[in-house]
Amino acid sequence: DKVLPELIEPYELRAAKLREFLEDVKPSLRYEIVPLADPYGPAGTDPDLRCLVVSEETRRGGEAVNKKRLENGLPELVLYEILLMKDPEHRQNEEEKISSSSLRQRLLGTLLRPPRQDPALPSRPYVIGLTGGTGSGKTSIARLLGQLGAFLIDADKLGHAVYVPGGPAYEQVVAAFGAEILNEDGTINRKVLGAKVFGNQEQLKSLTDIVWPEIARMVREQIKEADAQG
């Protein structure tokens, strides 16, 4: 549940940075840096350890390590608690301590590597796809992009448009699912249609095989329109 886990540095790089830091602090000490394959790490099983350094927020983890050591027949470790350095310039949505999660959040919007050149893709128009679950922020991001001059294509609205009488998928959907999905005015009752397809993978595939190609075609038409507008 880490914030932006895709921006966490690889283990090898993190270990190298840690080793460089520790050797800079006191090169005469011997350091053994190991990856943690479980919540306890070597602290739960190493009989030679005597002390575990914790912070206020990781003390409970230290206590859990001691519980595991007692279960393994080992003596408890001394828990030495240190204070965490505060970040005097932390933002309102960031942690008060100096935090790698906060640093990763500040990377949002930073181009980490140049866009991959694909000769099969035209250089323009430049298409950005926004996807995500309900409440993930698609509408807010789309609004911001629109304010910057982007041409917005709402696939949800196109999805509704294919169902209307005269729409590109209307006749096919009615033919496939019957007149019982229609309201008195001839429009498709999406609740009735939904009850037919959700929970039935075969029926759902029949519907998406009709609707999705039409939505994709409408999207391509709108991309051409955006290109024509510059």
TrEMBL record:
The keyword ATP-binding applies. It comes from the Eukaryota. Keywords: ATP-binding, Nucleotide-binding. One of its GO terms (molecular function) is dephospho-CoA kinase activity. The keyword Iron does not apply. GO terms for biological process: coenzyme A biosynthetic process. NCBIfam families: dephospho-CoA kinase. This is COASY synthase. It comes from Aegotheles bennettii. The lineage of its organism: Eukaryota, Metazoa, Chordata, Craniata, Vertebrata. The gene is Coasy.
